[in-house]
Amino acid sequence: NPVQEGGKYRLGSAMLSLNTSPREQLDVREIARPLMQELASATGAQVALGVRDQLSLLYLESFKSQSVVTINLNIGSRIPLAVTAGGRAYLAGMPSNERANLLERIRSLDEHAWQTIEPQIESALKEYGETGCCSSMGDWIRQVNGIAAPLALGPAMPLMVISIAGVADMVPAEKMLTEMRPKLLDLVHAIEARVGQRS
What is the SS3 assignment for 1? Predict the structure, then answer.
């Protein structure tokens, strides 16, 4: 059950594949950590920083509140691109030609599932164009809602994603879209501004 246990993954090879120096990677994580922790504590939701690894999003950082009911996805967890808010935000933030190639890879894995996934991705891309975020309300795990935005840190850094996820009973879709979305965008802008000041 992914709510209880996410897939684990060694960070070593994934970190090497980011094509940036360890110093640059560390700076982003150092800058993001206190801001992510603050948002997780304030909202009761999980806040994560992710980067793509093949057809998954790999969590580089993950913070959650001390809530009794939470999502157990930690650093090193991998989530699918096509059906999660984080994955969809990554797709939305990519150059369109690269996104088309990646979507073709996703489609070729399961033609039948693609009939459901394609309209969801199209809807997420439209949502991103209108709001700067992508959501997934129970599309991956029925009882989990999520919202995410790409984190663009300049040409020397890989595209990353910041996501907020919560158990649907505690963070219903309406709350995610009205209360969490502005907080998410504020967080993304704060990280981008601080990384920009360092470079």
Answer: coil
Query: CA nearest 180: which of 52, 65, 66?
Result: 65
The pLDDT score that the predictor gives to residue 134 is 97
Q: Which residues of 102-112 are buried (b: 16+ CB within 10 A; e: fewer)?
A: bbeebbeeeee
Distance CA 136, CA 40 (A): 18
Chain centre distance of CA 164: 8
What is the pTM for the complete model shown?
A: 0.84
CA dihedral 29, 92, 52, 162 (to 10 degrees): 30
Contact of 165 with 123, CB cutoff 8 Å: no
C-alpha to C-alpha distance for 197 and 176, rounded to whole angstroms: 30
Q: Are 63 and 170 in contact (CB under 8 A)?
A: no
What is the per-residue pLDDT across 58-74, written as a single tens digit (0 to 9) for each? 999 999 876 645 566 77
